[in-house]
């Protein structure tokens, strides 16, 4: 989700389904918090509007998790 890579950038004008597609394709680097674009998006866009954030995962990947 970098603006230097236009195919992965997310801008405010995008429709919800396009944002969802791009986030689903995003790579969440394990153990990296500082500068993690996915976590930054959640922190600045999701949490100000919603009380929780749910990650749906297969059981073999630890199951669902709510933050």
From TrEMBL:
GO terms for molecular function: tyrosine-tRNA ligase activity. Its EC number is 6.1.1.1. This is tyrosine--tRNA ligase. InterPro entries: Tyr-tRNA_synthase. It catalyses: tRNA(Tyr) + L-tyrosine + ATP = L-tyrosyl-tRNA(Tyr) + AMP + diphosphate + H(+). The lineage of its organism: Eukaryota, Viridiplantae, Streptophyta, Embryophyta, Tracheophyta. One of its GO terms (biological process) is tyrosyl-tRNA aminoacylation. One of its GO terms (cellular component) is cytoplasm.
